[in-house]
Amino acid sequence: MQNITTTLRKLFYLWSRSQVPVKQPIKISRIDNLIIFLVCILISIISSYKLLFFSPLNITDIFSWLFTFTEMLISSGILILVSKKENPTISSRQIILILTLLLAVQAMKLALASTISPLSMIIPPALIISQGMGSITALAWVSIASFSWPDPAVAINNNLFFILLVCASVVSLLGGKMRSRAQLLQLSIFVPIGAFLSQSILVGKNNISLIDKKEFVFVKGGIFSDSLLLAIVMLFTILFIPVFESIFGLLTKARLLELADKEKPLIRRLSLEAPGTFEHTLLICGLAEEATRMIGGDIDLIKTGALYHDVGKLHAPNWFIENQDGSKNPHDELDDPIKSAEVLQAHVDEGLKFARKSRLPKLIANFIPEHQGTLKMGYFFQKAKEKNIDINENYFRYKGPIPQSKETAILMLADGCEAALRAMNINASDKEALETISNIVYSRQKDGQLNDSNLSKGEIFLIKRAFLNVWKRIRHRRIQYPTSKNNTFS
Ligand SMILES: [Fe+2]
Ligand SMILES: [Fe+2]
Q1: pLDDT at 51 over 90
Q2: Do 282 and 431 fall within a single domain?
């Protein structure tokens, strides 16, 4: 009996160790909460008030109004929960954007339902949401926007409703994965063509009356102009996505890839003015990318974040060892550990200034302070102790915050392992390399740097294996192949 209890306890211990620690949800201010609540109420009012316009009004109408009102309020709440689940770091501005788009669509249905196709009203916002907040949020939004029709006098044709759901779901699913503006353009051409063909087959070319009680599409236009309108609205939406990106802080895949271009002025400057840091950055990109792939994280985000993590070193490149190429170390000449610690902290502060000037999205700028967390500048702290300077240990720690996401935590670990792996002997065994990686990771864990990162023990194990794989690749590249003296064959 005792054996079973011990085994169960062990199993529970192993299970709990493999679980992701509970993460604090992002705090939303009271005013933002109030605005979000008011928008939800507005959506519910707009979606239901027409039910009170029946005369004479009886108790069933009042009940059906109350039901629709509550249904929309609950749906809006579910939409917020889904978006928070898919994007744990979603900001209140982005939640307000999703709800405002829903409010706009409901208002448009009231004003224009008899003149504009529902496809042109629902699919373009779904594209914005899938690009900025992911496919699941977009699908949840589409289902609420498609099922709720505020005007009881307007009922949508079943076939058209089916086409609307299919097209909007395709846009939601593909929109979240599109990695360039060109792919989005293709989507804005193929979806209207698909809608046109399916409407021709399912709804019928001559069947203008698409709804049961009232004409829905352009009276004179029909299916072709309907699809043309959809294509035009989608193209305009793609044109305006960058505006949404800057106003609401959306980070689309296309924007991430644009920022990861090594010809961007800031990255170009890094390669010219701080070549050592640039090399270090490229190696870190490789380590972090492999680790993120292993745990199923956001690869595009970490690749771009890694590229910008040390741009702050541009303020004084030769104060960092990787750019010194054997020349004099300015820290030795300065001979003041406190001042040296300030220079190190400045690479974070200046990095944030560069990020603001270059208008980097917040999710990318977060990599700058979080990759250093509140780590101790051990070398200079030791120097201060040797000089008997009586100063608090905290003065030799970076100001933080500690990594708040899996991606920034991976970058911190990659940053720590990079120099050690680069310096490792070419003949070192895999076991030795893994030991070095494990020691560095363990020291960060012990120091509490990974506490807010949401990384589980299992994921940390995978990250260590990924770093080892990258090191094996690097070692392989560094091995010189024996070549024949008269190298005539190839
Ligand atoms: Fe750094
Ligand atoms: Fe770094």
Answers
A1: no
A2: yes
CA distance 478 to 427: 11
Asked whether the whole model's pTM tops 0.90, one would answer no
Shared domain for 242 and 265, answered yes or no, is no
What is the whole-number distance in angstroms between the Cα of residue 261 and the centre of ligand 2? 19
What's the Cα-to-Cα distance from 133 to each of 85, 353, 402, 445, 478, rounded to whole Å? 11, 27, 25, 31, 42
Domain range for 61 is: 26-254
ω before 369 within 30° of 0 (cis)? Answer: no
Please tell me the number of the ligand nearest to residue 344's CA: 1
Whether a cis peptide bond, with omega within 30° of 0, leads into 125 is: no
377 alpha carbon, closest ligand: 1
Which pLDDT belongs to residue 4?
83
Query: What is the whole-number distance in angstroms between the Cα of residue 89 and the centre of ligand 1?
Result: 23
How far apart are the CA of 367 and the centre of ligand 2, in A? Answer: 10
| Predicted local distance difference test score (pLDDT) of residue 215 | 45
Dihedral angle computed from the Cα positions of residues 205, 209, 212 and 215, in that order, rounded to the nearest 10 degrees: 150
Asked whether residue 488 is assigned to any structural domain, the reply reads: no
Instruction: Establish if 11 belongs to a structural domain.
Output: no
Q: Read off the pLDDT of each residue in 116-131 and give the average, rounded to a whole number.
A: 90
Number of residues in the chain: 490
451: its two tokens: 């506490």
Cα 321 to averaged position of ligand 2 atoms, centre (Å) = 11
CA distance 135 to 146: 16
Is residue 310 a contact partner of residue 279, using CB atoms and an 8 Å limit?
no
* Ligand that lies nearest to the alpha carbon of residue 418, given by its number in the listed order: 2
Residue 313 has pLDDT above 80, yes or no: yes
Q: Are residues 184 and 275 in the same domain?
A: no
CA of 419 to the centre of ligand 2 (A): 9
Distance (Å) from CA 281 to ligand 2 centroid:
6
In the numeric block, which tokens belong to residue 133? 């907040």
- Give the model confidence (pLDDT) of 156-167 as tens digits: 777 888 888 999
Phi, psi of 19 (to 5 degrees): -80, 155
The continuous run of DSSP H or E covering 344 comes out as helix 337-357
